[in-house]
Write the structure tokens for this entry.
Amino acid sequence: MQEVKRASAGRAHLTTRQAAGHCRVSIPTLRRWIRAGDLGAYLTPGGHRRIDLDEFQRFLAAQGRPPYPLGAGARTRLLVVDDEPLIVAMLVDLLSDGPFTIETATDGYEALVKVGTFRPSVIILDAVMPGLDGIEACRCLRRLPETRDIRILGVTGHPSVVPVLRGAGADACVTKPLDPDAVARELDRLVTSTRVSHSLAEREG
């Protein structure tokens, strides 16, 4: 399938930046998919690539990737990472009625695997866990272009660890015992900042 040169009037479409952000890949990678014929796209009169939403959903299904969320009520993919089952259960219970699709992990290694398969927009990440801890997992996420824009809410039972978490790349931190209002407030801020960033990015592409 090759790029076509005209847009279809009235059809929903995405910019290359939106599509790349959803797939958690770089824009050059997305363009390679287009050039290879794996993903159909067209050019606007101004020369910008656009991807028909139906074509993008077809591509995502063929690749085994999550579908692109539709409508204003689209849910944010949230990954909760903590080795304490009671904390995980509390957070899932607290947030399950919110605008989230939630997945969980119990250590840093599992979290990195889930990032690849679940592709969260926001992560609640405990600092101290067996195996790969949250601080090193945070550093790993910030090093990779595909994951460096994920919003990260760090969690720690030790206030002295907060600067370390922030230095590793956490966007915000809360301390244990967790205050549900503080968690909800920080998540709302991070989700809002994610949407603003995506809105600004849509002007490019």
In short: The helical segments are 16-23, 27-36, 53-63, 85-95, 108-118, 134-143, 162-168, 180-201. The chain has two domains: 13-68, 76-199. Confidence is low (pLDDT under 50) at residues 1-10, 196-203. The beta strands are 13-15, 42-43, 49-52, 76-81, 100-105, 122-126, 151-156, 172-175.
